Amino acid sequence: MAGELLQTSTSTREADARVAVDVRALQAAGRLDAARERYGELVGRYQRRGLRIAFHYLRNTADADEAVQDAFIKAYTHLGTFREELPFEVWLTRILINGCLDRLKARRRRERWIAPPAVDADGVERDPAEYIASRGPSPEDHVLAEERRRQVATALAQLPERQRMVFVLSHFEGRTSREVSAMTGLNESTVRVHLFRAIRRLRGLLAVRSGRKTGSVGRSHRAAR
Amino acid sequence: MRLVDWMMRRGHVSETELVKALLTGDQPRHLDRCDLCADRAAELGRWLDEVKAVADAEVDAAFPSERLAAQQAQIMRRLEQADEPARVLEFPRQSARVARETHGRRVAPAWVGVAAAAGLVVGVISGQMTARHEQTATTAPPIAAIDLASTPAPAATPATPASLSGARPEGPSLLDMDLEAYTPDTLRVFDEATPRLIASSYTTVARR
User: Fold this and answer.
1) Under 8 Å between Cβ of B54 and A148
2) Rounded to an integer, what distance in angstroms lies between the CA atom of residue A99 and that of residue A71?
3) Please, what's the b/e burial string for A29-48 (b: 16 or more CB within 10 A of its CB; e: otherwise)?
4) Which residue, among A46, A152, A195, would best test binding to B if mutated, counting the most B CBs under 10 Å from its CB?
5) Does the distance separating the beta carbons of A152 and B54 come in below 8 Å?
6) Does A126 score more than 60 pLDDT?
7) Is residue B45 pLDDT above 60, yes or no?
8) Which DSSP string do the residues of A76-140 spell out, in sequence order?
C-alpha cells in the first residue's frame, strides 16, 4: 500500500515536472496559448488543495480565493526559477504560504485602522453564499454538522499560525514532516514539535467545547491527560 | 518503553508517542500488549479523522464545484493578461510639441497678461468718455426743436386727487381729438415739407 502510494506520488511528481518543463519551453518559444493550456492541467490538479490550505490559514473565502489565484499566477510567471528536483506541489505550496502570510500581515495592518468586518459569534467571517439554503441533509443534521464544523474551525483558528499550518499540511494534506519542512522552511524536528503541540491543543480545545455543551468533560479529554 | 512513561504513566505510552505512532506508522510494542493504550490510539485516530472530515466538509461547503470552475476561468483570464501586458498609450504630449514646433513663434505668457490688462484699461477709459459725451448730447436740446416748440409744453401735473376727481387737464383730451385730422404742431413743418406722393399719384391716375 505504502509502496503504491509512493509510486503514485513519484509518478505525479514526475508528471508535474514534465508539465512544468513543457510550459517553460512553450513560453520560451512564444507559444503562449499552448503554454497556458498546458499549465491549466496543473491548475486543475492543485486548485482544490491550494484552496483548502489557504482557507484554513486565512479563515476567509474571498481571501483564500485571491491567494490561490495569486499563487498560480506567480508560479506561472516565475516558472523559469522552478527547479525540477523539488516537487512542483511543494514549490507552489511555498508560494501560496508566503502569499497567505503577506495577506495576514496586511489584514492586521488594516484592522489596526479600520473596524473589522462583520463576523459571526465565533469570530469567523462568513460568506453570504453560505447562508443560502441547499438541497441535502435534513435541517437538524445540517445544524449539527454546522455546529461541529464551527467548533473545529474555531479551535483551529485558536491555534498559533505555525501550529495551524503544520497541522493542516501534515494531517489534512497528508504531507510528511520533510515535505512540510520544505514547504514552510521550518526545521523537520520543529515541524514535528509543532504538530504534536497542535494536536494536543486542539484536543484540549474541542474537549472543553464539547464538555461545555454536554456539561461533562469528554472521554478523549481524559485520555489526553 | 521510556523511563518517563514507566514512572509517570505506569508504563502506558504518552499522547506524543501515540500521535507519532499514528502519523508515522511506527507502532510501539506496548500497544500490542495494552488494551487501554490500543483503545486510546484508536480513539485518537478516530478523532483525527473526524477533525479532517469536518474541516474538509467546511472547505467543500465554502468552495462548491461552480466556484472552483469560476476560479479556474478567472486564473486562465489573468494568465492571458499576464502573457499580453497592457500597451502603454502615449500621452498626447508629443503631438502637442509637434504642433507647437510647426506653429513657429511663441508668445510669452507674461505678455498676454500685460496685453489683457492694457485692453481692460483702454476699454474702461473709452467707456467713461463715451458715456460722458452721450450725457452732454442728451442734455442740450436740438435747435430745430427749440424753434418749433414755440408754445411751452404744458407742465406735467401730478395726479392729484383733484385731477382724478374730474378736473380736466389743459389741452385736448385724446377722447375729444379727431385723430385722423390731428397733426401735432411740431410735425407740421415736416408734413408741409414732405412731397405728397400719394396725392400726386391719385391726380395722375385721375388724369389718365
Assistant:
1) yes
2) 7
3) eeeeeebbebbbebbebbbb
4) A152
5) yes
6) no
7) yes
8) HHTGGG--TTS-HHHHHHHHHHHHHHHHHHHHHHHHHHSPPPP--TTS----GGGGS--SSS-HH
∠ CA A99-A101-A103, nearest 5°, is 70
* Pairs of CB atoms within 8 A across A/B: 105
- Better-predicted residue by pLDDT, B111 or A112: B111
B44 interface with A at CB cutoff 8 Å: yes
Residue range B121-134, pLDDT digits in tens? 999 999 999 998 88
- pLDDT tens profile A193-215: 898 889 888 888 887 666 555 54
Which CA distances in Å does B72 have to A24, A173, B44? Answer: 20, 21, 37
For residue A171, the 8-state DSSP code is: I
Cell of A173: 494534506
Q: What is the rounded distance in angstroms from the CA atom of residue B81 to the CA atom of residue B21?
A: 49
Whole-model pTM: value is 0.57
ipTM of the modeled complex: 0.71
**Cell (9 digits) for B38:** 490500543
Least Cα separation, residue B92 to chain A (angstroms): 32
Percent of chain A with pLDDT over 70: 76
Asked whether the beta carbons of A153 and A52 are under 8 A apart, the reply is no
